[in-house]
Amino acid sequence: MEIRGALFYLFSAVLLFSAFRVITARNPVHAALFLVLAFFQAAAVWLLLKAEFLAISLVLVYVGAVMVLFLFVVMMLDIDVAALRAGFWKHFPLAAMVGVIIALEMAAVLMGGFRPEEPRPLQAAVQAAQQGVQFSNTKELGKLLYTHYLFPLEIAAVILLVAIVAAIALTLRQRKDSRHMDPSQQVRVKARDRLQIVKIEPTVAAPPAEPAPAAAETKA
Predict the structure, then answer these.
(1) 36 burial level (CB within 10 Å; 0-12, 13-18, 19+)
(2) Cβ–Cβ < 8 Å for 31, 22
(3) What string of DSSP letters covers 54-105?
(4) How far is CA 135 from CA 49, 93, 118, in A?
(5) Residue 154, CB-side half-sphere exposure with 13 Å CA sphere
(6) From first to last of its 220 residues, what are the pLDDT tens digits of the chain?
């Protein structure tokens, strides 16, 4: 077995193990960390397939941004794990049925993908690379995105834009239980509006204490 094949099996085994631990770990932080490990192993598999751009994008976008955000959210929120697992067995049959349907759909898609068909532009580039022709996979990926897949790319961009606008709108909504401050008032604030000098009388020395009586008067 070549070293490349051995590395592929190693990365794939670690990827499957970490993905399994993501759904079985009881601690949400541990599950997020296993997901980070799964992303790293997937990036390593992409590197073995000579897709350096996708591997770096996976590490930078998912590990560097998305998972860090997940970790911050999970660690800042007080998540009651026992309450989340209270209805596990109640919803298990429905979840198992949905999982089986998804697995069958993925199997149908994968089995259909191995059928012989006309070579696509990306497959033609891979064949050219195998024949010794030099090319840049990042350049070929850019050509595919902005020529053959331009319409789906624009749809994805519009969906992401709507999601960003919706997230901003949800954060700017008026809530009675939150304190809101107008940024325009913060910009127009001046020092004399925040600082007030009060004149206080100088400190006066305390009067001396009266001496205690020397002795009590005798009773007549």
Answers:
(1) buried
(2) yes
(3) HHHHIIIIIIIIIHHHHHHHHHHS---HHHHTTTHHHHHHHHHHHHHHHHHH
(4) 15, 50, 21
(5) 6
(6) 688 888 889 999 999 999 999 888 888 778 888 888 999 999 999 888 888 888 888 888 888 877 777 777 777 766 666 666 677 778 888 888 998 998 888 888 777 655 555 545 555 555 655 565 666 777 877 888 888 888 888 898 899 899 888 878 777 666 666 666 777 777 787 777 777 777 877 777 777 777 766 555 555 5
What span, in angstroms and rounded, lies between the C-alpha atoms of 14 and 18? 6
* Length, in residues, of the chain: 220
Side chain identity at residue 193, one-letter code: D
Rounded to two decimals, what is the model's pTM? Answer: 0.51
User: Dihedral, CA atoms, 34, 35, 36, 38, nearest 10 degrees?
Assistant: 90
